[in-house]
Amino acid sequence: MIGFEGRMFVEAVIAGAVAMFLVGSLVGLEYSYRMYPEIFRERRVDPISLLLAVLGWTLLAVSWMRSVPVGIWIAAFLIGYVVNMRPGYGRIETVLGIATFLAALTWLEGLGPR
């Protein structure tokens, strides 16, 4: 069972992650409206969003396994940036980021004690 201090720490990490996700969402929405004035784009992958998605999801996996709150907050910002882009944008990037997350978790689990 987690003590009071541990519970406060977990709540602070979650609150920080939610706040950073919301800030990242607003920044990503602003970026997508400025970058893409058209309603829906052709099937292209935005290299900046792809990089941020892969970095964010990978950082989340590593920070989660290592219990690093600042890494989780930065990852939440990067994930929020890509997830909340203008409708029709950021979908492919998010899926590739989640695939990277799952691959990183699988790899990190394999490095653990046996």
TrEMBL record:
<feature type="transmembrane region" description="Helical">
    <location>
        <begin position="12"/>
        <end position="29"/>
    </location>
</feature>
<keyword id="KW-0812">Transmembrane</keyword>
<keyword id="KW-0472">Membrane</keyword>
<dbReference type="InterPro" id="IPR011305">
    <property type="entry name" value="Prd_NiFe_hyd_3_EhaL"/>
</dbReference>
<keyword id="KW-1133">Transmembrane helix</keyword>
<dbReference type="InterPro" id="IPR019211">
    <property type="entry name" value="EhaL"/>
</dbReference>
<feature type="transmembrane region" description="Helical">
    <location>
        <begin position="50"/>
        <end position="83"/>
    </location>
</feature>
<dbReference type="Pfam" id="PF09877">
    <property type="entry name" value="EhaL"/>
</dbReference>
<protein>
    <submittedName>
        <fullName>DUF2104 family protein</fullName>
    </submittedName>
</protein>
<feature type="transmembrane region" description="Helical">
    <location>
        <begin position="89"/>
        <end position="108"/>
    </location>
</feature>
